[in-house]
What we know:
Blueprint: H1 3-14, H2 22-33, E1 53-59, H3 65-72, E2 80-83, E3 111-112, E4 129-130, H4 139-142, H5 152-160, H6 168-178, E5 179-181, E6 198-202, H7 208-219, E7 234-237, E8 239-240, E9 242-243, E10 246-247, H8 250-255, E11 264-267, E12 271-278, E13 283-291, E14 294-306, H9 309-319, E15 322-323, H10 325-331, E16 337-338, E17 349-351, E18 355-357, H11 371-381, E19 394-398, E20 412-417, H12 429-433, H13 437-444, E21 452-459, E22 467-469, E23 480-482, H14 489-506, E24 517-518, H15 534-543, E25 545-547, E26 579-581, H16 596-615
Parallel strand pairs: 1-2, 1-14, 2-11, 5-6, 14-26, 15-16
Antiparallel strand pairs: 3-4, 6-8, 7-19, 9-10, 12-13, 13-14, 17-25, 18-21, 18-24, 19-20, 20-21, 22-23
Helix pairs in contact: 1-11, 2-11, 3-16, 6-16, 14-15
Amino acid sequence: MVLNAIMVTSALKGAVGTSFWLLPLLLAGLTYFQYDLVDPESRPIDRYPVESEYDFVVVGGGSAGAVVASRLSEVPEWKVLLLEAGPDENEITDVPSLSAYLQLTKLDWQYKTEPTGMACLAMKGARCNWPRGKVLGGSSVLNYMLYVRGNRKDYEHWEALGNPGWGYEQALHYFKKSEDNRNPYLAKSPYHGTGGLLTVQEAPWRTPLVVAFVQAGVEIGYQNRDINGELQTGFMIAQGTIRRGSRCSTAKAFLRPIRLRRNIHTAMNSHVTKILIDPLTLRALGVEFVRDGKRHIVKARKEVILSAGAINSPQILMLSGIGPKEHLRHIGVPVLMDLKVGDNLQDHVAMGGLTFLVDKPVAIVQDRFSPIGLTMRYLVDGAGPMTTLGGVEGLAFVNTKFANESGTWPDIQFHMAPASINSDAGAQVRRIFGLTDTVYDTVYRPIANKDAWTIMPLLLRPRSRGTVRLRSSNPFHKPIINANYFSDPKDVAVLVEGVKIAMKVSEAEVFRQFGSRVYRRKLPGCQHLRFGSDAYWECQIRHISMTIYHPVGTAKMGPRSDRNSVVDPALRVHGVKGLRVIDASIMPTITSGNTNAPVIMIAEKGADLIKSDWLTGNGEKISPLVAI
Length: 628
């Protein structure tokens, strides 16, 4: 998914060697043509908490937290504080094609998975990079902007697990509430909304390869359809959260329009270290955070809302004494509530590196574009290759032989990109993926700068479950992330079948016009296997195991009878008053597709749940469990 970003950015600097002289031009141009001085929705105001006590303290200003804080501040009598560990967005984050260049920067928490010997074997240290946004807007600032809601059956399943109010019709209501869909062909669709705060549209530029990709899907028996509509199975040109060619993060969509609202304060570069909980009453009183090297405490009259994401939310809960008692005791954190925090970790894992070479100049290659022309086209018109959705032009949902018999709950998703690992001659892709020199030099260097495209098949509903655990009681130590990819062998079997369908797509008649053919150089570690065999695909899956940046599930939503759950269907932490979790961590099971849109939906619904409780006098209701 990083490929177009890297190709376009490499084009910007390719004509000038290693010089970054175009970067100041880009920054100056963005400022002159589009940004803060002329933007009626200018940047949120960064400030220390003006008061020592607020009605609501929202921890994390990311994909969920920005939405929650914005919606709560709609009640003028409530005072809301939003705490974000990172800084504000900048001009570069707004350029869709530059997504990958934001990884491994100060805007990224720069997490890595633990080595397991079962996945990420082609990466340095056998560890996968797990980018997470450390910036106002969170991972909606680092992601590839793909707008995918998931499958109807995902939400029906959530409700069947004992979570009333989380079925598809309720979810659809909140998807539409956020959405301002600007695709003309969806204007009258009952499955889409207009006039919401979050802009959704197609990128204004595309290659002929994505058109062929969609036609190939039709050729092998699938439909070209709106995958966010009535049915998900099928192929389409990707839609994304962009606005006039620029990224539309949740910070831009939900916080900038309310920057002058007097009852909301936003404090950036404010790292929350723990939730303050009364050990006798088990009530959240406020939070402790560090800003500019100084420790601060702010109290919450009504609730603390934890929206720090599937890695940081469980970390903060455990640091606060809420989590698995054996683990907390081992770390030295006093236990207040024994809950399965940090369990149930799920992610969409994909196979990377599948490369198709073409004879025509239709892909994105480093030295093809005029850097000045490319930049000026984006600055003046908001058009051209710099508007691409990170690196993905096409999406598809397909059924393997293991899928639901109805055919309406596909088990594999494709991301199609008009470039591959070779396309930047090793300048950046290998670093973002963390590929070893041996793998890159053996397989991809021989085809450096050749026209190529790729399909990344990903597993939609993994059976494997991982964990997030504290490394220590120090809140500034990164947590231990065990993705546990492929601990269930069925996951590999399904993904192998997905790769085989991807190969059928690549062999469709429509691709022959480009001379498209699969690149057959074998990976080190897989060279003893026959290329294209099931065993070879499994080997490549285990070597180039790609996260699609969708960690979820580490504060599972469920009824009190579910001993693995952390929050109830109103997203209140079991047994703790005045504390909710509203972000990707509450998902009982991962949704079938990119998770950013579902997280925004969760935030929209979560904000309404809070309003319903407190505006009707039910704010003190909790789901009690036995404290430790």
